[in-house]
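Q: What would this chain look like folded?
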Amino acid sequence: MGGPAVRERSHHVDRAVIERARGGDTDAFETIVRERMDAVYRLSLAIVGDEADARDAAQETFVSVWRRIASLREVDRFDAWLQRIAVNAARMTLRGRRRRQVREIASDDVIRRASAEGVAVPGAGAARSVDDADRLGRALAGLSLDQRTILALHHLEGQGLAEIADVLRIPVGTVKSRLFTARRELERALAAEAER
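A: My prediction, written as structure tokens:
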């Protein structure tokens, strides 16, 4: 029975639904929310590291999307636009709650994706144990916000370099460099955690 199933990338929202939502159709907007809420929540959780904060960030994402969808110019780029809003909402949520320590990380998904990408994850075979999940959570919590964001977009959401560049509005070369650095920092943090 092979390894754990890797979550398939979420499908794109139908263009006609987006167009209707742009025109103020609340049923169409509810369809968008239903189809994209899980992905937005997952991305938010990986960035903020706390379930309650991730729910707040996801809710704020869709409030912002509803307010701004009429001004969306490129309907074909809806997913990148949505993810950009989600990343910004998660960052704002985190900044607003700096006093709280990052406690929970979507560790199982990150381990599976990172392992599939060839990132050395000490103890990844037993990652389902509470100790390993806690170690990964602490390792991720020690990374910068930018590093957690780029790892989440790539390993959790399955975004390619060009897609991440579009979401974060930075050059592809910068994405490649930051992803390399984030992976290296995660490996170091995991190695340090394994030695504890």
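Confidence is low (pLDDT under 50) at residues 1-10, 99-107, 120-128.
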